[in-house]
Specification:
Length: about 240
């Protein structure tokens, strides 16, 4: 199956339900093998990137990632556009539930123009590479005043074959309660969509903001590649 076939047949009703109930959704077998192989191969193609971050230097963990430059690779442009529109309607519902007075436009291009009005011009999609012993500390990817409340990670490597350890970790920090850890180990080709900042959680007196962070546990062996698709641009 091709990437566009897979994206066109996504079950948005079930993705929306997972996002509403959990703040994240795991979508199986959406990135074809040729696309994941190509993204991994492009890691060493310097002209595709605007900057390289050595995580240890910033105490972000251990490993390396690179921000793509504009123009983004076709597969990333495609996913950024196609995922944005259905997610914008979930985002708008969450804002209504939470009493946040902000409506996201239906088209990603219009949202990018809104980012530019906030002086957010730099592309944020990135590719990450972890080797044995590497990890990514819990964080949020908010790059300016204006942000989109969902992001996606594409899993390009196969656990147990390409690497061990290196689980994808989400932490939900409900206000005044102890934090909950969610540990995922998706297969190559899977995609996880999750909230960048907080989800709309239902309490006894309506909805409240429940913050979430994400990160990666230490790799015990091998190499692990992911691509992060963030919808807002950065300052
Ligand atoms: O490598 C991962 O699984 C996490 C990547 C990440 O932090 C991101 O895409 O924002
Ligand atoms: Fe991240």
């Amino acid at each position: 199956m091709s990437l566009s076939n897979n994206i066109n047949s996504l079950n948005w009703q079930s993705i929306k339900q997972d996002l509403d109930e959990q703040g994240y959704a795991v979508i199986r077998a959406v990135i074809p093998r040729d696309v994941s192989d190509q993204l991994i191969a492009s890691y060493s193609q310097a002209d595709l990137y605007r900057s390289t971050i050595v995580m240890k230097r910033y105490n972000f963990g251990k490993g390396e990632y690179k921000y793509f430059a504009y123009p983004l690779p076709d597969s990333i442009v495609y996913l950024r556009n196609e995922l944005y529109t259905p997610l914008s309607s979930v985002a708008n519902e969450w804002n209504l539930k939470l009493g946040i007075n902000l409506t996201y436009p239906e088209k990603h291009q219009d949202f990018i123009e809104a980012c530019q009005q906030q002086n957010q011009y730099r592309p944020t999609p990135l590719i990450l590479k972890y080797e044995t012993g590497d990890f990514n500390t819990l964080h949020q990817d908010l790059y300016g005043e204006l942000y989109f409340p969902f992001q996606a990670v594409l899993f390009l490597s196969q656990p147990q074959e390409d690497y061990t350890g290196g689980e994808f970790v989400l932490i939900e920090q409900k206000p005044r309660l102890q934090s909950q850890a969610i540990v995922l180990q998706p297969n190559r080709g899977d995609m996880v969509i999750f909230t960048t900042n907080f989800r709309a959680a239902k309490g006894t007196r309506g909805y409240y903001r429940s913050p979430m962070k994400h990160g990666v546990s230490k790799l015990h062996s091998g190499n692990r590649y992911t691509v992060g698709i963030i919808f807002h641009d950065a300052k």
